[in-house]
């Protein structure tokens, strides 16, 4: 208080007494130019500078007092006052603490100035606007029985925490003492503070939550306002709520987290979410608490080693038919890989390997494989079959799909340089900002370190929030190289990688210096930093985060070069490196160190303990096989196609003997048409012709079991449980339901006999529409009569396994792609024959029916364009051309040369001339 009074009142009194402003009227231009200075001019200049400084200090005092009195709602940034405002903020807070006034709860901790409250020091450099991180667990071994633990939320400081828990903001000193805090450091969001002497819940009500949305590619302020506020004209409200970030309303970048106005009209998506609570909020809107978080129990965190050895299995048959069962999601302290069956038999290693990778990364890998298969199917030549991975690789892919079905939405607060390191006991993801730490080193057992770095690099390459960040991987990671992502570069030589890092850092520093010099001519050089440069969309590509992952351990010399290169102001380049064992020491001066001990890892700078995400050797080999075999050009001759050049002399393809109905309507399936149980797979799945009573529960699972047994006759129960990824008790109960449903034939023989020999098989009379279709084209699609092709294509009721829920039928990916490929080839051959005879009705029917199984297929779209062109339907031709080009862009592939030529012919009348 004395210092404040001296600054506010004493300083002007001193300036009035000793200042030389009186000399201002006595100094003329002639005296300045031709008379030797006696010191009056210098004293006058110093006096004027002192008065300007006093005005800045006085304005800062007024601004800080207003912030305290308004509990932080009024925040004013004094132009040119960055040198004085933090100090004044500390003085005002000290006075508020002295008088023990409740209004001291609001402090000067904002994104525009430094907080004056004592805070926890962290080894991780904090970004300008640190997103909310998952709450870390309390430190193990805490023996204070009357203590609780509090996770620091965004906007909190020690004063508000003390006022919340103790009812007295002046007790922030006890928090500082109990946690050994550094008064000069910035309080990181997400750290855990121990609060001694707390015996009750917080004394104040939590502050209301804010609703935020993460910008995705293609979003605009208008579209966000339409989606979440119900009116596109309300986009200025979103800009006003994010004025510090959204300077130009036409420029918003994917990954930005924008706060939405708190009030939304009823009936809109945001209004409904607000009325139903946080659980009703859907992607991309995420609830981000800004109030003090609920206290964390002071009990030591349960490590994965202490977790239960098994997850209780509820009978999936007890679930409602309207909600097909999926894999049980990990619960607190549990992972999918720890799951066991009721007879203590370990679940297969594929699930354990995928579970260790984490559901978010598994979902990203599964989505990448689905997209690659779509592109591969779209570019597959007729009569060719996609190359199939090894069985173990397919099993890993099935486990990825199973894990992806349980994955939660991506964190809304993730930033471009965030990497997934692991999960807390409650399943919350642990995100680490590589750009804020600049250098991050993973230390521990060498094998565990390699698995952590491999999982982290895979996540960076595939996660949506880091899609615009550059990634350079040093070391052998062939599965990442096989991704063929434009922002990912794999370099096997570590020395080349270090040289590339040094050159990239030097180039950015030179560019940053030039930008500051340019700004110095008409503005403040201090305002030119990495964030301001990224605001310019034309500069984003050059200044986007560039992340180096060193899978190979750098030498001491190489690490020293990296440190020297990255020292100084940040330029958006950061390093994640595999380090040596803890006992051997770690690379010096790392911004953050991740320590891995078995199944537990921790961030040394923050004390966060978590279960690390791992990518073991089994999963790596499978990923290499999966990504290499899903390359678009990898195909083999299809077994449903005859590859002989000439027909035998005694073989003739007969034309259609009777007219065919080409109505595009679905005829109902008559159960009486099946004399024996028949699986329907070429569309929505079903089981018809059964002799027993249909189960009231788990009907879809029984259908899946029947299809698996039909495709894998003679397998054992343990093989069935492994490939279907179910517990043995669940498998037995569903097998009993299936046996009762199928019933017996006219001779009393069970359609699903008891497996006395240990081998499970269906009655020979049990069949499927897929088997019938294969019989019709047994000689090859290109040698099957037109009648046979019409009959076969008429069995296609939709996309194969059309209504299979996510996580189910994961074992049938090979069969599903084969069914789609066969349906496409049949439709294409049948359409070509019909066009040759100018039977446009048959051609149109064949293409439309085949497109049910292979939507958007390019060769089928060509046949459809030809059909409508011959029919003179110009509007439909234009629509189909536009649809085809959009489909290629969505898959990220080029149109086939034949498609380009056809489009030129139908749109321009002829093909363009080429050399």
From TrEMBL:
Gene3D superfamilies, per database record: LysM domain (3.10.350.10), Tetratricopeptide repeat domain (1.25.40.10)
Ranges annotated as spanning the membrane: 39-69, 90-108
Domain LysM: 148-195, 211-260
InterPro entries found in the cross-reference section: Bact_Kbp (IPR052196), BTAD (IPR005158), LysM (IPR018392), LysM_dom_sf (IPR036779), TPR-like_helical_dom_sf (IPR011990)
Region (Disordered): 107-145, 273-345
Keywords: Membrane, Transmembrane, Transmembrane helix
Compositionally skewed regions (Polar residues) per UniProt: 107-117
Positions with biased composition (Low complexity): 289-312
Protein name: Putative large membrane protein
């Amino acid at each position: 208080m004395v210092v404040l009074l001296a600054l506010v009142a004493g300083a002007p009194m001193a300036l009035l007494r000793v200042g030389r402003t009186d000399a201002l009227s006595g100094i003329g231009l002639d005296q300045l130019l031709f008379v030797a200075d006696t010191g009056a001019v210098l004293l006058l200049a110093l006096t004027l500078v002192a008065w300007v400084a006093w005005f800045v200090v006085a304005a800062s005092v007024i601004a800080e007092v207003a912030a305290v009195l308004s509990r932080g709602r009024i925040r004013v940034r004094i132009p040119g006052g960055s040198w004085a405002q933090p100090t004044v903020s500390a003085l005002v807070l000290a006075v508020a603490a002295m008088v023990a006034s409740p209004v001291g709860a609001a402090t000067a901790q904002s994104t525009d100035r430094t907080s004056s409250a004592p805070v926890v020091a962290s080894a991780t450099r904090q970004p300008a606007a640190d997103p909310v991180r998952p709450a870390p667990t309390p430190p193990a071994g805490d023996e204070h029985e009357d203590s609780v633990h509090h996770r620091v939320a965004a906007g909190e400081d020690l004063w508000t925490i003390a006022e919340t828990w103790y009812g007295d903001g002046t007790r922030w000193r006890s928090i500082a003492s109990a946690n050994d805090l550094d008064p000069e450091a910035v309080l990181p969001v997400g750290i855990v503070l121990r609060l001694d002497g707390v015996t009750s819940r917080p004394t104040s009500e939590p502050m209301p939550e804010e609703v935020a949305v993460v910008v995705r590619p293609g979003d605009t302020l208008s579209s966000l306002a339409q989606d979440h506020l119900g009116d596109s004209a309300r986009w200025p409200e979103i800009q006003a709520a994010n004025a510090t970030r959204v300077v130009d309303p036409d420029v918003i970048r994917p990954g930005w987290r924008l706060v939405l106005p708190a009030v939304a009209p009823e009936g809109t998506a945001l209004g409904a979410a607000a009325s139903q609570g946080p659980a009703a909020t859907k992607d991309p809107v995420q609830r981000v608490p800004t109030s003090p978080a609920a206290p964390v129990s002071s009990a030591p965190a349960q490590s994965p080693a202490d977790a239960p050895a098994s997850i209780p299995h509820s009978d999936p048959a007890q679930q409602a038919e309207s909600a097909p069962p999926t894999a049980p999601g990990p619960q607190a302290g549990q992972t999918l890989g720890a799951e066991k069956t009721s007879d203590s038999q370990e679940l297969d290693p594929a699930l354990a390997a995928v579970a260790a990778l984490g559901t978010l990364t598994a979902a990203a890998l599964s989505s990448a494989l689905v997209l690659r298969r779509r592109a591969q199917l779209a570019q597959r030549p007729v009569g060719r079959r996609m190359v199939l991975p090894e069985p173990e690789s397919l099993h890993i892919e099935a486990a990825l799909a199973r894990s992806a079905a349980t994955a939660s939405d991506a964190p809304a607060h993730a930033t471009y340089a965030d990497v997934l390191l692991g999960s807390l006991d409650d399943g919350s993801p642990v995100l680490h900002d590589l750009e804020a730490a600049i250098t991050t080193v993973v230390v521990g057992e060498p094998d565990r370190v390699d698995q952590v770095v491999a999982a982290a690099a895979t996540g960076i390459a595939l996660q949506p929030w880091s899609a615009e960040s550059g990634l350079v991987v040093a070391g052998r990671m062939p599965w990442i190289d096989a991704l063929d992502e434009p922002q990912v570069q794999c370099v096997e030589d570590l020395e080349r990688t270090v040289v590339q890092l040094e050159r990239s850092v030097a180039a950015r520093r030179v560019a940053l210096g030039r930008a500051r010099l340019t700004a110095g001519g008409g503005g403040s050089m201090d305002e030119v930093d990495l964030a301001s440069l990224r605001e310019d969309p034309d500069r984003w590509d050059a200044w986007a985060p560039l992340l180096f992952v060193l899978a190979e351990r750098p030498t001491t010399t190489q690490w020293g070069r990296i440190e020297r290169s990255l020292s100084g102001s940040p330029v958006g380049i950061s390093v994640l490196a595999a380090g040596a064992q803890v006992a051997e020491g770690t690379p010096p001066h790392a911004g953050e160190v991740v320590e891995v001990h078995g199944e537990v890892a921790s961030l040394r700078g923050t004390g966060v303990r978590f279960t690390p995400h791992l990518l073991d050797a089994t999963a790596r080999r499978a990923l290499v096989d999966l990504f290499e075999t899903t390359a678009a050009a990898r195909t083999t001759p299809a077994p449903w196609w005859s590859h002989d050049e000439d027909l035998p002399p005694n073989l003739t393809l007969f034309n259609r003997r009777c007219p065919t109905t080409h109505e595009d309507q679905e005829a109902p399936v008559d159960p009486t048409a099946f004399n024996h149980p028949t699986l329907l797979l070429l569309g929505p799945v079903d089981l018809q012709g059964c002799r027993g009573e249909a189960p009231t529960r788990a009907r879809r699972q029984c259908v899946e079991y029947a299809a698996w047994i039909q495709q894998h006759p003679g397998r054992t129960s343990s093989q069935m449980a492994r490939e279907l990824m179910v517990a043995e008790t669940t498998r037995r109960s569903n097998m009993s339901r299936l046996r009762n449903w199928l019933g017996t034939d006219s001779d009393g023989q069970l359609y699903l006999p008891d497996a006395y020999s240990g081998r499970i098989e269906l009655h020979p009379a049990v069949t499927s529409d897929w088997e019938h279709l294969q019989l019709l084209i047994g000689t090859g699609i290109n040698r099957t009569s037109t009648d046979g092709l019409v009959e076969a294509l008429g069995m296609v009721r939709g996309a194969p396994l059309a209504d299979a829920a996510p996580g189910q039928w994961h074992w049938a990916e090979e069969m599903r792609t084969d069914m789609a490929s066969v349906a496409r080839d049949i439709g294409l051959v049948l359409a070509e024959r019909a066009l040759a005879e100018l039977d446009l009705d048959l051609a149109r029917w064949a293409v439309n029916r085949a497109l049910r199984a292979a939507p958007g297929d390019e060769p089928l779209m060509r046949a459809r364009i030809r059909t409508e062109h011959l029919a003179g339907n110009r509007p439909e031709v234009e629509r189909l051309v536009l649809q085809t080009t959009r489909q290629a862009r969505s898959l990220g592939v080029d149109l086939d040369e034949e498609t380009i030529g056809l489009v030129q012919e139908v749109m321009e009348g002829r093909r363009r001339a080429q050399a």
